Amino acid sequence: MDTEFARFDRDGNGVILPEEVAAAQREAATTEALRQNRQVFGKLDQDGNGQLSPQEFSALANPQAIPIDPTPIMSQFDTDKDGIVTLIEYRIATQSNFDRIDTDRDGIVTAVEMNAAGIVP
């Protein structure tokens, strides 16, 4: 009990003020956050060199947690709706999209054309 009291009684005057409780709680939260950060860092630092490479850092992003839905892509490219996208289907859809954006039909998509199509360059 006395140790816990002393932890809150920051100035040691024998009384605990709300500011002292808040300071002790902030310190405990910071200590716990640092502990957890060191633990996570240790798991990410696969080669143990004390630094995170871009590949190690990328493990923070959990691609398994990102919802994946192939439907929009398949709908766009699988023109015959057989459940697969062939190179021909892909080329047709891609060329069609290019042609839609290339409004002056010069074979070059400019920033102005992209902007007009709603694509921010």
How does this structure look, described?
It is a single chain. The chain is built from 6 helices and no strands. With 121 residues, the chain is mostly helical. The chain is elongated, with a radius of gyration of 29 Å.
Features:
single chain, 0% strand, 121 residues
- Amount of beta strand: under 5%
CA radius of gyration is 29 Å
C-alpha termini separation:
64 Å
- Helix/strand class: mainly alpha
Per DSSP, the total helix count is: 6
The mean pLDDT is 90
Q: State the helical fraction.
A: 40-55%
Q: Specify the overall morphology.
A: elongated
**Biggest sheet details:** none
Annotation, overall tally of beta strands: 0
Order of helices and strands: HHHHHH
Question: What order do the helices and strands come in, and which of them pair?
Answer:
Elements: H1 2-8, H2 18-44, H3 54-57, H4 71-77, H5 87-101, H6 111-116
